Amino acid sequence: LVKDFHAVLKEFQKAQRTCAERESTFLPQREQGGGGGGGGGSGGRAAYGANMDHERSSYQAAEYMESQALLQEQKRQELMHTEGEMEFNNALIEEREAGILEIQQQIGEVNEIFQDLAVLVNEQGQMIDDIEANIVSTAVRTKDAQKELTKADKSQKAARNKMICLAIVIAVVLIVLILFLLQ
Q1: What pTM did the predictor assign?
Q2: CA 20 to 30 Å from 95, out of 31, 101, 112, 166?
Q3: How far apart (Å, rounded) are the C-alpha atoms in residues 115 and 9?
Q4: What are the pLDDT digits (tens) for 92-129?
Q5: Sign of the C-alpha dihedral computed for residues 166, 172, 178 and 180 taken in this order
């Protein structure tokens, strides 16, 4: 039982270390990945658009400006969408991090419980060993007592037989003495 408990405790501690390692590798990646990226190549497009503006007619210039405005609006919407996703992802990461911290705390509590249980198992193991030693000692003493009782019974029978023989001898001596005195 103690060996099984120690094996389970070692497996639990191994799982706790693995969890801590995974958490430590996750946090640096999150910090690197959350740094954000730069904008697109809008500067190059604006320069290209400026060069094209000189070459096009006034109608084409207006059309180009309208397309640029649409592109800028589309980029602004994409940026807002990306920012929304980033906020959602950050909230999700914070929630997961809180969950991980709670799990880590619970694992620490379970670890303390297992350590307390290990102490109790060791103490009870010693008590069980003491009880076992007492049982073995009692069994040996019981066998010795049985041998002593057998010896006492034999001694009692021998003493009884000696008393009967002595009584018979005394009775015979008294009868012989009485007969001798009566003659």
Answers
A1: 0.36
A2: 112
A3: 8
A4: 888 888 888 898 888 889 989 988 988 888 888 788 88
A5: negative
Provide CB contacts within 8 A for 71, sequence distance 6+: 45
Phi-psi region of 38 (alpha: psi -120 to 50; beta: other; left: phi over 0): beta
At 28, is the pLDDT very low, low, confident or very high (cuts 50, 70, 90)?
low
Give the residue ranges of DSSP H helices in the chain: 2-33, 42-55, 58-182
- The span from the CA of 124 to the CA of 126, in Å, is 5
- Rounded Cα distance, 93 and 85, in Å: 12
Give the position of tokens 């809180």. 98
Enumerate long-range contacts of 74-77, CB under 8 Å, 24 or more apart: 75/40, 75/42
For residue range 56-82, list pLDDT tens digits in order: 455 555 666 777 778 888 888 888 888
Rounded to the nearest 10°, the torsion over CA 104, 108, 113, 116 is: 170
Nearest to 89 by CA among 81, 119, 75, 116: 81
Query: Sign of torsion, CA 83 88 94 96?
Result: negative
- Two tokens at 9? 């405790």
